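Aggregate trends can hide what the representation actually does to any particular protein. This step matters because it turns folding into a mapping between discrete strings. For completeness, the protein is quoted in full, as a sequence line and a line of structure tokens:
=====
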Amino acid sequence: MEPESISQTDYETLATFRQTLREFLHFSEQAAKKLDLTPQQHQALLAIKGHKREGMNVGELANILKIQPHSAVGLVNRLVANKLAIRQAVEQDRRQVFLSLSSKGEKMLEKLSVAHRHELRRLKPALVHLLNLLDSDFTHKPHARGTLSQ
């Protein structure tokens, strides 16, 4: 397979796309800090609340956040100490513990999520435009599909 050629326009589009993503991440970090949360604590709260079924264990949280299980335990300990999350033992197997948000954690996450949704709506036109540019540029080049993740 021949190496794909990348044009200057492709580089500019990819650079702008990354810059826009970074702008959103910076916004997210600052929004969390305003509420005295670390970005990782915010991510954990969102992962727990957004889990498909009620309750998430620490191993699942570690997997979602792409951190080591012992790091997830420390993160959960801090969330519980700050009264943002609750550990609940499973009745059938007391060794298994599920995580959920406390009312304080719910309120904090809702405030952050409203702000994030607003910011994403603000960035949506630029992101959609860049994705369309990347899609149209890459679809017209041989062997170009799916190269963004490589």
